[in-house]
Fold this sequence. Notes:
single chain, 10 strands, alpha+beta, 2 domains, globular, 4-stranded antiparallel beta sheet, Ribosomal Protein S5, domain 2, Alpha-Beta Plaits, 6-stranded mixed beta sheet
Amino acid sequence: xxxxxxxxxxxxxxxxxxxxxxxxxxxxxxxxxxxxxxxxxxxxxxxxxxxxxxxxxxxxxxxxxxxxxxxxxxxxxxxxxxxxxxxxxxxxxxxxxxxxxxxxxxxxxxxxxxxxxxxxxxxxxxxxxxxxxxxxxxxxxxxxxxxxxxxxxxxxxxxxxxxxxxxxxxxxxxxxxxxxxxxxxxxxxxxxxxxxxxxxxxxxxxxxxxxxxxxxxxxxxxxxxxxxxxxxxxxxxxxxxxxxxxxxxxxxxxxxxxxxxxxxxxxxxxxxxxxxx
Length: 277
């Protein structure tokens, strides 16, 4: 890489709804998910130099800067060279696409440097294709089918992670049914209450098996509801959960209250469109 540093956002991904609709012969599960992205996330900096990775940030200690790190794998897949700095602000392995968002940010940066976007970024992880766009979308297949959607209405969100790691393969293995119905048709939502009403007719099919493995997930969901969330659900395979609140002030108050449990809790909103970041 030559030229100035590139700074790229890697926003947290939320599965507002996640239906598991089948499983392929190779064992990969088929998904149907409404995905959005939040204003909180990691940060990627690409600087001139040979390929390398350094990690800092509040959750940096939970990651190894080895050859298997998704940031390095993404750069190699794109065929680019840069000194990568990952500022890790999101909990590790927490169901909000942190590693996938980081890899997607590296791919976006490499594209800005002139390297073509890989044809099959899902090889890095199911969430990577949707994280490349980092905007509201319907994600299907094993993550490779991404349909951009109109911007969602403004949402006042609280993300909560209880600090318990859950194994995604273990969660999928705990499912009692894998051929669940897909999402209902996704309309254009006039406001947050309309979106919440639609969400009540959807599911996260991984929430029940995850809560069986880690019962604290149920405690987090109950705490979000008790704090005034109009809607609460787990994202991805957990253990991060989210609540939708009526106002930013309510969300800030709830996050401060929930953090007293020793949980990571942050109030946020939807990310701005990628062109504005």
